[in-house]
């Protein structure tokens, strides 16, 4: 395990590649676990794109009038990086959650007494989503608007609560009300730690080559390079102009030093996108071989693991002997874990799992039927 950990720490980005069933995804999670890291897991697929990974425009929840709009939303990786950056921030003073809850209790109590809560220029009730709501039902416009917790928190941090700046003063009035009535502390910007011991964030991308890599990463093609982690790798994203004031990434997105990426892939999937050379050099690569991962059998198929090893080695040796196939087409030890489901029946394992996979390996071969019979013979121990 330590060799994998060292490879990740030294390079920031690691690809685990190997034949199907070698336990690459499980190994990636075990590496993160060994580091006691905060972990996020995503799986790439052909429809996965930049807006899923970095950021993009997404529909917003209907407001109280039923109107649906669009807003910029962080993708999975950018949101993860924001968490990692926050984890490296110290001396931050913030009792906002506690005081917001007290405000909601007060508004609810007032409503129970038939009263609204006056804050600034407005009399507020609550929306169905535990947000503050103003409604001018007695005016011709029948106007109403909602102030969410995030709106107020943005104003608390001296950010624009809404991209347009609308109702900013009203959000700030709520902040002042919370300070006067519930002792909300003044917001204090934290300082960024240069080094955070044992503060690891590991982002795992399963099947990393099943998406169009260059389109998914976009400008991060530059920032993921281990030599450009931190603010020196800051890049302007496609939606930089929509970032709120005070946003950590207002001046450009960058990947914090404590973020590590592990990708898993195999090269034999005919449906995957190519992994271009420029992107390849930004990752360290480690092939996971079937024989290296038989420890996964311990405590699971103990009664059959000796025979499983013989059959796996015999089958994989035969696979390599077929022109057009190689070690990337090996059968990994994870397949043999299914023996537990069949009470040790190697015949059922072949019929239900291995035969179909090997048939796909041989699809298009002129002698596929005879080759498949040869593989079955090897699996059964007769070479």
Fold and architecture overview:
This protein has 13 helices and 13 strands. With 383 residues, the chain is of the alpha/beta class. It folds into three domains: 2-59 and 68-89 and 196-288, Rossmann fold (3-Layer(aba) Sandwich); 96-182, no CATH class; 292-379. Strand 7 and strand 8 (132-136) form a beta hairpin. Helix 6 (149-156) packs across helix 7 and helix 11 packs antiparallel against helix 13 (368-379). The longest helix has 17 residues, at 96-112. The chain is elongated. The chain starts with a helix and ends with a helix. The relative contact order is 0.16. GO terms for molecular function: ATP binding; ATP hydrolysis activity. This is AAA domain-containing protein. Pfam families: AAA_5 (PF07728). InterPro entries: AAA+_ATPase, ATPase_dyneun-rel_AAA, Methyl-DNA_Rec/Restrict_Enz, P-loop_NTPase.
